[in-house]
Amino acid sequence: MSSLPPETQRRIEPDEQVRRLIARYQAPLRAYFRKRINNPADVDDLVQTLFLRLLDRGDTHSLDNAEAYIFQTASNLLRDRYRRQATRRRFEVGQENEGEQIEEISPERVLTGREDMRAVQKALLELPERTRTIFMLQRFEHFKYREIADRLGISVSSVEKHMASALAQIFTRLDRKK
């Protein structure tokens, strides 16, 4: 008898469909990750994470194309991993440079920063929903224009136009504030 709660037990006990998917795709996924990452020790962790996501998804019977779903999930895992690594590197570089030049953070500077942030938030809320979504995906999620275009089913040119519009509105809002 397991000491895990029933909902956790159900989550970690794969049904027959998931077992078949694991048996079928475990080796190809290992090869996929092995080709794309520098640390072979992380390969099994990535495969395990992928199958946990598959278990979290629940109904694997409704997958139209399991292979496409699994390898798209693998691609997403790698993208997330690279983003985390890039963030970690930026943080580490920031830590290394921390002692070099520290600007004084005056109350006026804090107030100005808060006002600028409010102005940007207002500008974002004034944007059309699609333009705001594109801006957020690019600036905060670090998606490339091509990724955004593919995700939203529009052209890269449209993404560029939405970004230009968003930036123009934000800069206009900041200029009006001053």
Q: What key attributes describe this structure?
A:
mainly alpha; 178 residues
Report on this structure:
It is a single chain. This protein is mostly helical. It is 76% helix and 0% strand. The chain contains eight helices and no strands.
Short description:
This protein is an all-alpha fold and 178 residues long. 76% of the residues lie in helices and 0% in strands.
Overall helicity: over 70%
* Rg, Å, rounded: 22 Å
Distance between the ends: 67 Å
DSSP E strands, number: 0
Overall morphology? extended
Number of helices: 8
SSE order, one letter for each helix or strand? HHHHHHHH
Please state roughly what percent of the residues sit in beta strands, choosing from under 5%, 5-15%, 15-25%, 25-35%, 35-45% or over 45%: under 5%
Structural class by helix and strand composition: mainly alpha
Largest sheet at a glance?
none
Low-confidence stretches: none
Mean pLDDT, all residues:
83
